[in-house]
Write a structure and sequence with these properties.
The protein has about 400 residues and is α/β, with parallel strands linked by helices. It has 15 helices and 17 strands. The strands form four sheets. Strands 5-6-4-1-7-8 form a six-stranded parallel β-sheet, with helices on both faces. A six-stranded parallel β-sheet has the order 11-10-9-15-16-17, with helices on both faces.
Length: about 400
């Protein structure tokens, strides 16, 4: 398990605590349209206020490129944060300097303030020591609760954590504990499902996984690249023909590591990618030259569901087919539902995340049944690739 301090290790009564959250939330007409990220940070904030801390919330929003931009102000989030927490939340017009100091001083024990967008200062993304010092000057302790930003060495995720007593918040703690259980010291056998369009974006990921898992299932458009590499004609399917040698190398690496790679044996094909397109199920060895593979077939989905019953841990990244349009969501839905049932029965630990994965699992109606679904896209992927995340390392160093 990673060694880092948690909220239980901090004495915060009467102290000011800087909490790095990820409130980069979707907005519509000036209001928060999805408060999931705020809700996920609430347990950390409530824990701190219950212990009598004054809480200063730090977040980025959008890409203002180091300059103030009224369209990317965090001010419109105050109402949503107040509603989620059930208490009034103050706002500081800047995240450092006099405006932030004045708001911090005005807080009573148990009070909460949201500071203006960190990225209004170029020093945030540059991890500038002076900007980190200006942030640190506002508080007595630092809590990181933004795993989704942990793959970036910014002043608020890395720099300030070296200047104050630092700990992981509840969300960060849950994320790291689930990730450790999934790949660092997992219960075996471990399966990984990796889907998505292209293998070019997931080479590091596949290279890391074949050395760590017992079974690697490849789906989505990237499965076509592997099928093509082993001599299967994939017709008009999305396929990176120029990566055939790379795909063969990954298969060789998997074989050497004793990792069983599972590719589709049947496929749902159509001549166009649109809702209700005429489609048929064929063996992958009989894909018509004028058609494209848009989903794994039912035999493949059934085989995968059966194989999962022999596994103890599942890591999932990417859909098995073009799940956005029925009927090409069938394989993703049925395998996700099988994994969800095994999770509910206490037989499988399921950890999923990254980009389309969250949308695909929500579409399959299983997002609440998996052991853990990470909403951290880039950070989750870099962790799966075996990379060191600066925002996690700094907590371990602390």
């Amino acid at each position: 398990m990673p060694k880092f301090k948690t909220l239980d290790d901090l004495d915060v009564a009467g102290k000011t605590v800087l909490v790095r959250v990820d409130f980069n939330v979707p907005m519509a007409e000036g209001k928060v349209s999805d408060a999931t990220r705020i809700e996920r940070a609430a347990p950390t904030i409530r824990d701190l206020t219950a212990k009598g801390a004054k809480v200063l919330l730090l977040s980025h929003f959008g890409r203002p490129k180091g300059k103030p931009n009224p369209e990317m102000s965090l001010k419109p989030l105050v109402t949503a944060v107040s509603q989620v927490l059930g208490q009034e939340v103050a706002f500081a017009e800047d995240c450092i300097g006099a405006p932030a100091e004045a708001v911090a001083k005005g807080l009573k024990d148990g009070g909460v303030a949201l500071l203006e967008n960190l990225r209004f200062h170029g020093g945030e993304e540059a991890n500038d020591p002076d900007f980190a010092k200006a942030l640190a000057a506002l508080g007595d302790a630092y809590v990181s609760d933004a795993f989704s930003a942990a793959h970036r060495a910014h002043a608020s995720t890395e720099g300030v954590a070296r200047l104050l007593p630092a700990a992981a918040g509840r969300l960060m703690q849950a994320e790291l504990e689930h990730l450790a259980a999934a790949l660092e010291k997992p219960k075996r056998p471990v399966a990984a499902i990796v889907g998505g369009a292209k293998i070019s974006t997931k080479l590091d990921l596949l290279g890391n996984l074949v050395a760590k898992v017992d079974m690697l299932v490849i789906g989505g458009g990237m499965a076509n690249t592997f099928l093509n590499a082993v001599g299967v004609d994939v017709g008009k399917s999305l396929c990176e023909h120029d990566l055939a040698e790379t795909a063969k190398e990954i298969l060789g690496k998997a074989k050497a590591a004793g990792c069983d790679v599972v590719l589709p044996t049947d496929a749902v094909v159509a001549s166009e990618f649109k809702a209700g397109a005429a489609n048929e199920t064929v063996s992958v060895k009989a894909v018509p030259s004028d058609k494209m593979i848009l989903d794994c077939g039912p035999a493949t989905a059934e085989h995968l569901a059966r194989r999962l019953t022999d596994c103890a841990t599942l890591v999932w990244n990417g859909p098995l087919g073009a799940f956005e349009i029925p009927p090409f969501d069938a394989a993703t839905n049925s395998v996700a539902q099988a994994a969800a049932q095994l999770t509910r029965d206490g037989k499988l630990l399921t950890v999923a995340g990254g980009g389309d994965t969250v949308a695909a699992l929500a579409h399959a109606g299983v997002i609440d049944d998996f052991s853990y679904v990470s909403t951290a896209g880039g950070a989750f992927l870099e962790w799966l690739e075996g990379k060191t995340l600066p925002g996690v390392k700094v907590l371990e160093d602390a």
